[in-house]
Specification:
By secondary structure, the protein is of the alpha/beta class. The protein folds into three domains: about 80 residues, Arc Repressor Mutant, subunit A; about 80 residues, D-Maltodextrin-Binding Protein, domain 2 (3-Layer(aba) Sandwich); about 110 residues, Periplasmic binding protein-like II (D-Maltodextrin-Binding Protein, domain 2). It has twelve helices and eleven strands. Strands 3, 4, 5, 6, 9, 10 and 11 form a seven-stranded mixed beta sheet that branches. Helix 9 links the parallel strand 7 and strand 8.
Amino acid sequence: MSDRDSDGSLDLNQLRTFLAVYRAGSITAGARLIGVSQPTVTAQLQALEKRLGRLFERLPRGVAPTAAAAELAARIAEPLDALTAVAGRSVATESVPQPPVRLAGPAEMLAVQALPALAPLIERGVRLTVTAGLSEDLLAGLRAGTYDLVVSTMRPRGRTVLAEPLSDEEFVLVAAPEVAASIDTARLQAAGPGALAGVPLVSYAGDLPILRRYWRHVFGIRLIGEASVVVADLRAVAAAVTAGAGISVLPRYLVAAQLDSGKLAALLEPPDPPINTGFLVRRPGTRTRPHVDLVFATLRAAARIW
């Protein structure tokens, strides 16, 4: 059988099969998604790749789409989904078992914001596989098909993924009350960070990325110094600061409860605090995965009140 229709266009069945594998992240899951055998999916992909070139890199577990695959998916997803809807043949309905939604993002944001918002979905049959990591690595995994959705603290570049602003996180300079009491906050506000000389710094990383950004944005100077405590988890940074280990700069959402209870004190409330925008990122053309859509919509709705 020819891999093109009689008018020379690409075979629609092959394109549907390609889109299913692209969305599912593996040949096996793609076959299950559209209800055909794995050998059929493999044969159709091979025929399509014969015409268009390599679309997937075969991995030990699943497949990774190439840049050409991402471009093809972006072009065909909307018209194929519309055609499927008109034909009345939904390839992924609530009656069809859905694979787990593969969500990734910063550990702290997932733990404090995303997972509590998504917990009610479990009763509706949604399954989640959650991975924490750095945004740059997770976005690479999203492009490779490892994840369905990524919460990113950086705006992704390129057209192979779709990103929507999710929420803004405000950064605040904090200390335990007993540490704050030893700091001349009036001098800090009037004269700058000289009032913090000798106060230990607690940081997420050795190069003090969040602290340096705060110093540059609020004080207009470059922070020079070393951290007394370095721990690669902002929740642990908050715990160390709450216990009196020193001062740090943390997202307000992460320490809101401690600020409200008085366990932490904000050393400054600048009129223009540093803000970082988080993004919810997905690959093009995942709308026939109802549970991915549901997780996406739930996170967007929850972000309005974060």
